[in-house]
């Protein structure tokens, strides 16, 4: 299944899904330290979203649609907040933005609870991630929307000094 491909986990997921049911195994999760400057972060995000576009195109398309819809509703609703008292639809837009932010905070809390449960030894290191999750999650959403959009621009990625061209179905040319 991996012959001529790039992504081991997405190829494995695709092959296992073809055999039947795939289940999540929490014990297989690993803690990974993330320490990027902005150019490296943008390159990582673009690479991941481009890989997803070629290896899981339906999931990528659905994710792209929902991420862009989420970001549009959130930021437009936030921009209209100063005028929310002037009309019902303005209040609804602001309420939608507030609701989406609440869902982000809830999701962040669930993610942080899972991290504390699986990696209690990293509790101190996770404080910055926790603050980011609760306060700056909308900016992470913008980064994800940018990742989806940037993945549309071309089919080549760079990874550890190598350049790869991805082809439909996930085959590659180095």
Overview of the molecule:
- The protein is mostly helical.
- It has five helices and three strands.
- It has a three-stranded antiparallel sheet, covered by helices on one side.
- A hairpin with a 5-residue loop joins strand 2 and strand 3.
- Helix 2 crosses helix 5.
- The protein is globular and about 60 Å long.
- The model has no long low-confidence stretch (mean pLDDT 88).
Write the layout of secondary structure elements.
Layout: H1 8-19, H2 38-55, H3 57-80, H4 88-118, H5 126-151, E1 156-159, E2 162-166, E3 172-173
Antiparallel strand pairs: 1-2, 2-3
Helix pairs in contact: 2-3, 2-5, 3-4, 3-5, 4-5
Q: Which key terms come to mind for this protein?
A:
3 strands; 6% strand; 174 residues
Concise summary:
The protein is built from five helices and three strands. By secondary structure, the chain is mainly alpha-helical.
